[in-house]
Amino acid sequence: MKIEGNHKIPAPRDVVWRGLLDPAVLARAVPGCEKLEAQPDGSYRAEMSVGIAAVKGKYHGRIEILDPVPPERYRMKVEGQGTGGFVKGEGVLTLAEQGGETVVSYSGEAQVGGIIANVGQRLLQGAARQIVSRFFEAFAREIAAHAPTAAPGPPVEV
Amino acid sequence: MSTKLLGERIKRKEDPRLIQGRAHYVDDLKLDGMLYMSFVRSVYAYARIKSIDAAAAKSLPGVLEVITGADIKDQLGLIPCAAGMEGLKIPKHYCLAVDTVRYVGEPVVAIVAKDRYTARDAVDKVEITYDPLTPVTDPESALGKDSPRVHEEFSDNLAFVAKLEAGDWKALEADSTLKIVKQRLINQRLAPASIETRGVIASYSLGEETLTVWSSTQIPHLLKTQLAILTRTDESRVRVIAPEVGGAFGSKLNVYAEEGVACYASHRLGKPVKWIEGRRENLLGTIHGRDQINDLELYVKPDGKVVGLKCNIIADLGAYHQLLTPAIPTLTALMIVGCYNIPNVWVETKGVFTNKMATDAYRGAGRPEATYIIERGMDLVARELNMDPVDVRMKNFPEPKDFPLALPTGVTYDTANYQKTLKKVLKLAHYPTLRKEQERLRKKGKYLGIGLSTYVEICAMGPSSRMPAGGWEFGMVRVEPTGKVTVYSGTSPHGQGEETSFAQITAEGLGIPFDDVTVYHGDTSVVQHGIGTFGSRTTAVGGTAVFRATERIRKKMARLAAHRLGVKPGDLEFRDGKVETSDGSKSMAFGDVVGEAYYARQLPPGVEPGLTEQYVFEPANYTFPFGAHVAVTEVDAETGEIALRNYYAVDDCGRILNPLLVDGQIHGGLAQGIGQALWEELVYDENGQVVTGSLMDYALPKAHQFPWFDTQTTETRTPVNPLGVKGVGEAGTIGSTPAIVNSVVDALQHLGVRHIDMPLKPEKIWKILKTVDGRQ
Amino acid sequence: MIPESFEYHAPQTLAEASRLIAQFGQEGKILAGGHSLLPLMKLRLASPRHLVDIGRVAELKYIREDADKIQIGALTTHYQIESSELLKQKCPLLPETAREIGDVQVRNKGTLGGSLAHADPAADWPAAILALGGEVEARSESGSRWIPAQEFFVEMLTTTLQADEILTAIRVPALPAHAGEAYVKFAQPASGFAIVGAAARVVLDDAGAVAEVGVGITGVAAKPYRAAAVEGVLRGHSPTAKRIAEAAAHAAEGVEVNADLYASAEYRTHLAAVYTRRALEKAVERAGGK
Amino acid sequence: MRIRIKLNGSWREDDVEPRLLLVYYLREVAGLTGTHIGCETTTCGACTILLNGEAVKSCTVLAVQADGAEITTIEGLASDGKLHPLQQGFWEEHGLQCGFCTPGMIMAACQLLGRNPHPTREEIRQGLEGNICRCTGYQHIVKAVEFAAQKISPQSTVES
Description:
CATH class of the largest domain in chain D: Alpha Beta
Order of helices and strands of chain D: EEHEEEHHHH
CATH architecture of the largest domain in chain C: 2-Layer Sandwich
Number of helices of chain C: 12
Structural class of chain D: alpha+beta
Number of strands of chain C: 14
Largest sheet of chain C: 5 strands, antiparallel
Strand order of the largest sheet of chain D: 2-1-5-3-4
Low-confidence stretches of chain D: none
Helix content of chain D: 25-40%
Radius of gyration of chain C: 19 Å
Number of strands of chain D: 5
Oligomer: heterotetramer
Number of domains of chain D: 2
Helix content of chain C: 25-40%
Mean pLDDT of chain D: 96
CATH class of the largest domain in chain C: Alpha Beta
Radius of gyration of chain D: 16 Å
Mean pLDDT of chain C: 97
Strand content of chain C: 25-35%
Strand order of the largest sheet of chain C: 4-5-10-6-7
């Protein structure tokens, strides 16, 4: 399953870059994230409850940031295993400056295995889009609230 | 007046228990102390098992046992494959995965608990860590040098190659007057999806050291032998019972991992263990059907005579062989010329391993693919030569007098009159009127399609020499001392209605009321021998065994009566509950003759007391039912939606013993064949995940999707068995699929459409329409 | 097939239900007919700790006419709507839509409120309620509010209902004179869910031009939506075949279109236009227009 | 939880876990195994029963939801040892093969004829949209329902 899109974050690129690598910020922004710990090898261990409304599953796994080119781009690998299935994804995030704001573009492939893949086909793509959107909305809020250096911008629109 | 039963429309003996909810399927059985089993299954298509942590599951109150592949690998044998072909690669197929999983849904851990709720809860508590590998999902690229291998012990993913070559291909290829019609055809993967899923109860008695297994199976006797081997139990101590079975369509003609593990668990715990398959498990882990890629070339004379057929078959076998997995695609080659005597045939079949569930026998098993290939092919020939599809077929049919007809494919067709069924169906459908209507509608921009299919299929499996595990069948008739008659059959019908048709055979044979006969099947301790129900064999082979055993009873009873009446046995007839001379002058009541046998006071010399006779029928050949179908479809030019407007079928399954049952088999077959053409598709994504894992995703046909089936029959009897019966279980499925596709392609032919792969989803049609006439 | 364990609560009154649902917050789910929630629970895709079964709250089962509005209690089943003589007269779009939901058994047990609150992106009801410009009533211990349908659906499986609110009723306008309504659907063959479902409501003025128009579309995007662009092209104009087709072509405008095994985004976009046109044609015809 | 259900005419009381599905209650608590399970997704209709006179899929109802309700299952359809006209119809017209979907199919048909005593063939097919049969191709089922309709309320030959 292809996942791609972009979101505008009303903050300068280096602020967004730092935010995207800050476990504390991420932990608050990733929907359903219950735990996110930086590991010695640079990866993160995560525990999260992924889903939409009542449809939820608990997953644990790792997030890896690879080939970082600050503050422009990095590659991200996500692997999670939960009851009845797994999620896996790999993609590239690109940060571009646009009039003092930052456009984060992402493009990647996600793979879902187990019951969600078997019976949830019809909702899968929409759900993935929705979770990604939620993340960026929350992330933008985090940046606005916790990064006073961020230039004040208009209310977040998604 | 004789008691005429054969050929009559007789209501089924099976039905009273079924329509009142009194029948017992596996899940309806409850044994004392019974435990429940559940499975943790692979969520990966291909992965190494790094670790299994079952501690949390084990500590759940009510969980008695957690079993892994490592635990049982040395205790339980491998899942058997009965197909014996030269050079076949047979991978080790454990009941629970050992080290590696190779398809999504493969059983990895079994849990036994006190009830099904606890067993289910425990599944979520088992933590398996996998190391994913790159799965093989496309059978064509699986054959490439660089493809990952499904089994590392083999050098490649090619499980077997089977070749069939006949005729003079040098001459044919040198003949420049021939047209070559080529087409790639995809026969998609299907799920048999009987409404009752699989299920098993294994009960090992520690005291008697006997193993009793209730399984929703088509082959209790074969299963008994295989489970004895698998569980290393003395076969004399194994009993298999197929209780009521809620449909199978080939999917229960197998030996499955869950059956083996249930036996193991019961032996270990000394309690009965039940496992009932869920629907998702069924779609993931019960065998699938079809899944072939067929590259067809037909060599055609300018007048429409087809003189050569070449076909490359790639069969996606899945990861492991189930009982008959590799054998199924070879049946495609066997029947590939259909009802045309094509002298030159060249077929190469490659069976390929992929990271999917095994394919195996699903209703038709290899023959629907064959019929689809040749019937799509004949339509393409008609199109190429601008002929009517009817004329091309008529041109290539052998004459009725040509039978028995030995074909280059190695089979000999018994009897047929293809012209007759085709003419009859054309009349039924008002074919010329339909063609005119089609013309008229085309002018208005409306697309009506008329699709034809003339099929022949191979049934009554079969001569033992051609079968993997015996093709005979066992029948026994016992006249009880009270005069009631018990019939025992080694077949294992599960909806086909042979409790009724076998009773018809015996009651008519003995001249007694239909209600006086009871038929037993499906229990290896009640019926001594048997092969089972599959391959449209039950009535033709099993019914013949019953017929012959009935004859033996007649012979003995005639001898007893003749002895008492002072006539020759040959002078006696069995009718209306009497055994009497044809003029009725000397007569004994049926019951009195039975009394002679049991009281045994005045037996003729050399005659043993009692009235039990058996017969094992070994057919000398298969039988070859045939038929002609016409499908009329309407295609919505705007959305690509297809409406099936009419369906006409004329089928010839040899002699008809009960028209009610024959109609039922035809209708059901049609629904499944039409289902394949229009809706059904078991889909794996590129990572090897099943994405049609529920009946909300896998589209089984529903009542409102069908028109009234207009069906008729012709009766061309077979000399292969004394009943003249050919078999009808799979005919509808085999004939209907190409009729539908031919119909939809026919509807769009004037736009330049040549072929559409199944299932004919509206989106495919829409895309084609968009490209052919540039609309939208 | 076997849900995880949960605690079950069966309040008899709405007040009691509101109290319970406020108490459990995210841990609780309301069970109405159960035909959206139980299938998820059986597959363990949803596992609420507390189920508050409002099935016994009698005050939520009604269909009534109130001046030029129709109000329907949340626990009214699809079948009750399908078979309501009052609705056939006063709001025929609702029975017509009800008939397209699931199957007979599902319609006997599934409820209007349950379906709307679940907000499946391919459910039938939202299209109709949107086309009608309906409103949804939400009640909690702190009071009640009416939410316009357009604001109700937020995204997939998500509405503006707060955790402590219960959907209690819907309200739609009754059919005025010179008006017509229709729902048409392209169904997924296995599940019956809408790949595209289009509901239309048209009111004509004395000159036969479109005075009011509502088009609701389901199945196409992550949430059901009102096709404003379609309505804009029609409003104030004579509903000629040409104009209807032009309008319908905007059916999927401005939304991110779904793709799945049964329809790509491209095909869905096309179907949305075709089915919207068909719904509008029917509605206009029923309104007495040509 | 304690529940009280009038099952095929007689009241009974049982203690059940809230998560117990009605279909398991019928099959395993009440021992009526005529109601079957064919899917997990409220699709196949094999588990159809009458709940307060309405056909529902008992796999998608909790037993506790049915507290106080009247339920009719396939076992309760025949009365005084006489088959219900639908049962007769299914037998007469060969409306079943393996029989697994049959109880649910008959209960759905029961609802159908209750609401529409003289359905057309098309209406019968539509009325059975919630029930899947893999064996019969449905045609004999349609005939079985027609048979029962005629039996229950014979239609006069001349329409008034």
